[in-house]
Amino acid sequence: MSDTRIERDPLGELAVPxxxxxxxxxxxxxxxxxxxxxxPLPAFVDAVIWIKKAxxxxxxxxxxxxxxxxxxxxxxxxxxxxxxxxxxxxVDVYQAGAGTSHNMxxxxxxxNRANELLGGRRGEYRPVHPNDHVNMAQxxxxxxxxxxxxxxxxxxxxxxxxxxxxxxAFAGKGRAFDGIVKSGRTHLQDATPIRLxxxxxxxxATIRRNRERVLRAxxxxxxxxxxxxxxxxxxxxxxxxxALMVEHLRTATRLELRVGEDRVQLMxxxxxxxxxxxxxxxxxxxxxxxxxxxxxxxxxxxxGFAEIVLPAVQPGSSIMPGKVNPxxxxxxxxxxxxxxxxxxxxxxxxxxxxxxxxxxxxxVAHNLLFAxxxxxxxxxxxxxxxxxxxxADEVTCAHWLEQSPAxxxxxxxxxxxxxxxKLAKEALAKNVTVRRLVEEKGLLKGKExxxxxxxxxxxxxxxxxxxxxxA
Length: 471
Fold this sequence. Notes:
Blueprint: E1 4-9, E2 12-17, H1 24-32, H2 42-62, H3 67-81, H4 100-117, H5 130-134, H6 140-176, E3 181-186, E4 189-195, H7 196-219, E5 223-224, H8 241-253, E6 258-259, H9 263-268, H10 271-297, E7 308-309, H11 327-351, H12 361-385, E8 391-392, H13 394-403, H14 412-415, H15 417-430, H16 434-441, H17 446-452
Parallel strand pairs: 5-6
Antiparallel strand pairs: 1-2, 3-4, 7-8
Helix pairs in contact: 1-4, 2-3, 2-6, 2-8, 3-4, 6-7, 6-12, 7-10, 10-11, 10-12, 11-12
């Protein structure tokens, strides 16, 4: 048997692998774009297949598509959505504009499989044709922007769950570490006291604020422009088509979706995707800062801050025996850098549209969905393999706190800013603690000194020693 079959399209004949479910237009794209070796992400494949399934059901409902053909397309789509034939989606991420190649890849796979289910053969496209039937009332121009929205919304649940788990892990450590007072730091210099628990509780609050920001940005993605066809005007689509499509997509995806009010606008603009990507970028910025903090707090073990201990997950050096590195948070840093880069690509691509269409949609789809995927996975790993096992070094926290010249801040209301500054400078010069220097100078004594230099109270709203009198 031949390893290929001959198929035809408007450009002529081309040999296609005999075993392939895809066809001639996919093969042309495969040959035209040997760029990265990156194939479409599963979320993007699912999203387009959902659209094809919904279209078949819609056209069966309206009577525009013969029931047996529609049923075969739906069965083929369900096979793909169930995990079959995934190796047949082969078009490189970097492809011709708009995503026509990926759209046709999906059309051809479903057409060939539907024909097999009806007793036909691959490559003959009878009775189901990829354009006439699978792509009925559709254009790449409304399919791909709709798929971007569906793919992102489908990945939203796992991302939010990952953020919820990470936030709760930080909050748990906040509660566990609430009794540990340590030196705060601003500008990487000693600052007034803070509780280790307050730092971790703030990390939890930061993750939760980002969660809400992501959800707010995602809401705009629920407006679907499917039914706009070529330029947003809906040529070749029935009047009931947009509403029926959204109804069937709701059922298939279990997502909250809305019929877009202005399909021309939804085709012209990728602003909703760009805004959502921007929310992911903000999350990455904050998460990266938290990862940096964890690395600093765990630095050492003898020559750094060493106020917390991260779980050891692997040997840290190929040359230095016994070295253990903050491997998980280093991974998180790299993920965040990638997400920020993805957002820059999305922003540039979203700006690059002209008139009725933005043709840069394939790279937007990949970067947006890839950012969601790695953020979701990174949040889960950071939670499970790092934050959950973090321990505090109370002795080191207490040591650095006692050494901090910033404790003079609590004395400023009593002796004034200028005198407090002199004390800080003198404490550093003599290498003594603020408490000892105050005692030596007799500035404050006994109960008053204890109240003013109550480190725990210095981590709460109020003026240290307020209401006390001089000894």
